[in-house]
Design goal:
Layout: E1 7-11, H1 16-27, E2 31-36, E3 45-47, H2 53-63, E4 70-73, H3 94-120, E5 126-130, H4 144-163, E6 169-175, H5 181-188, H6 200-212, E7 221-224
Parallel strand pairs: 1-2, 1-4, 2-3, 4-5, 5-6, 6-7
Amino acid sequence: MNSRKETVVVVGASRGIGASVTQHFHNNGHKVFAVSRTQAKVNSWIKADISQPSGIQAVGDAIGTETLDALLFMGGVWETDAFTQNYNFTESSDAETRFVIGVNTIAPIEITRILSDNLLQAANPRAIYIGSLSGLDNRASAEVANTASKFGLRGAVQALRIAFDRKIGFTVINPGNVATEEVLSDIQEGRFPPQKVIPISDLIHSVEWLLSLSPLVDVQDLNLQQR
């Protein structure tokens, strides 16, 4: 990322990857609008439930006409007991499926739509979304709603690139397990098997690298796999 201080929106800013990305950009002097349902650890917090149209509208209302250099959609949800031996697709409800797809696929589309004018005011706008390796071809996991939502996100982002005539740089970052507090806790408590996770610093550096690229370069997918 260049030395110029930029204005970014981070969605999913109160926990996990989003919290770490928010704190990093805030600590480095960038203007950060932090979107989450629960309190984020920065001053410019936008309280919004993006599973609801009213929450998405609240994001647009709070940002107003501010020029945005980047939209960083770092949030995501999944089914109960996802990625553990206790997960059972047949026990996942219709409401849960709709919630997961709503947050992971529909919300990114609608937030991009509502902030598009703000992004297009910038010289080199970028929109970056957290996907998943399970959203890649032939990499699906048993978590049906989550996998479907991540496939859908990648398709939506490919279409958004065309819809905005390539005037915004669109990227989906597809990581394996990242060393957030939640993932480390799941490993320590036995919900996830022992493994070497991706350092959160690598995820942040990936975002910074994407934001440092010239307007002549677009990166469709950035896949981060665990060794």
